[in-house]
Write a structure and sequence with these properties.
- The complex is a heterodimer of chains A (152) and B (176).
- The relative contact order of chain A is 0.15.
- Chain A is built from 4 helices and no strands.
- In chain A, 70% of the residues lie in helices and 0% in strands.
- Chain B has 176 residues and is mostly helical.
- The longest helix of chain B is centred in the middle third of the chain and has 24 residues.
- The radius of gyration of chain B is 22 Å and the shape is extended.
- Chain B starts with a helix and ends with a helix.
- The chains are: A mainly alpha (152), B mainly alpha (176).
- At the A-B interface, helix 2 and helix 4 of A face helix 3, helix 5, helix 6, helix 7 and helix 8 of B.
């Protein structure tokens, strides 16, 4: 527990391992059901970021960020590019024009470009705030590493 | 009845904010700031806005984690005896002017619970027929006012980039 690279104790790790999937599931539920119940892209994205922060806090930097492969970053970048281009392509007559009027009020994904915009907002909010947190963690560790090198 | 509950909550929030300013320990100050956001979330829930209440609660938790992470090793308690009487005098004068102007302005606003419904009335009437969304808030922020939401997302993105640019100190060290 004293070493921040190793994470917290076994109890915290086990609880985090069990609950992170459920938290991510709740985030996806909140993003998908934005036109049927309270919630939406903004709180869904922040819940997503909170699940990632829970993993980062419980398993430590070495547990999460060094095992994160390069492909995930590329996938996220590609997803953002695809969604933004889809937003532009879906604009039939002018920018951000909604195509489907009216939608079925009892089904998700029936509201034109609204689910896509919601998903884009969720990615923006969640990954942006997680980026702030991980920047606060990572840059500090890099500074400490450089100081150790200078001492040696 | 709702006014009494709301004024109780607002008093709680103001006390939490004053505590957050006057505490000398930074960590206790962050946690006192958290009670302000929690009271705001309860106030939104009392005013029947569960959407904003959920958003406020979640943002509050995240901000608390980030602030605790930022302040946990930078505890700088400094307690100076209060000596500057001139600034206190000007602060009291400014407070009196501000309160009198705010009273004049608040008299012009419509009363609590009877808002002017010029634009929002048409939104409420047309949202279900035109869009078919059961949650009217998502149909407003993602359809009627989507350019607004786009600019909000841009502001958040800019804030993230700015915080990374401020937090990165590696380049400065390598220059040395």
């Amino acid at each position: 527990m004293n070493n921040p690279r190793r994470g917290m104790t076994l109890i915290v790790k086990t609880v985090a391992r069990l609950t992170t999937g459920l938290i991510l599931l709740f985030a996806v539920y909140s993003i998908i059901n934005e036109q049927m119940r309270p919630g939406g892209g903004f709180p869904g994205g922040i819940i997503f970021a909170l699940a990632l922060i829970l993993l980062l806090l419980s398993f430590g930097k070495a547990g999460v960020l060094e095992k994160l492969p390069e492909e995930i970053n590329r996938f996220v970048e590609g997803a953002i590019a695809i969604i933004s281009s889809a937003l532009i392509l879906l604009a039939g007559s002018y920018f951000l024009f909604n195509l489907i009027y009216p939608a079925n009020p009892h089904r998700p994904f029936s509201l034109g470009i609204v689910p896509f915009c919601n998903f884009a907002i969720a990615i923006n909010v969640g990954l942006g705030l997680f980026t702030v947190f991980s920047a606060m963690v990572l840059f500090k560790s890099k500074i400490n590493d450089l100081k150790d090198k200078d001492k040696n | 009845m709702i006014e009494i509950e709301l004024s109780f909550l607002l008093t709680f929030m103001i006390l939490g904010a004053m505590l957050a300013i006057f505490l000398s320990d930074l960590l206790s100050s962050v946690i006192a700031l958290g009670t302000v956001g929690l009271g705001l979330s309860l106030a939104f829930l009392l005013l029947q806005a569960p959407d904003i209440a959920a958003t406020q609660l979640v943002v509050e938790i995240l901000c608390l984690i980030i602030l605790v992470r930022a302040t946990i090793q930078k505890d700088l308690p400094d307690k100076k005896p209060f000596k500057d009487y001139f600034s206190a005098f000007t602060a009291i004068i400014f407070l009196i002017v501000f309160l009198s102007v705010a009273y004049q302005v608040l008299k012009l606003l419509p009363g609590f619970g009877s808002a002017m419904m010029k634009v929002s009335g048409s939104y409420i009437k047309e949202a279900f027929d035109k869009l078919g969304s059961r949650n009217i808030i998502s149909s407003i922020i993602l359809e009627f006012r989507i350019l607004d939401t786009l600019c909000e997302a841009t502001i958040l993105f800019t804030a993230v980039i700015g915080s990374i640019a401020v937090l990165r100190e590696v380049g400065k060290i390598r220059k040395k």
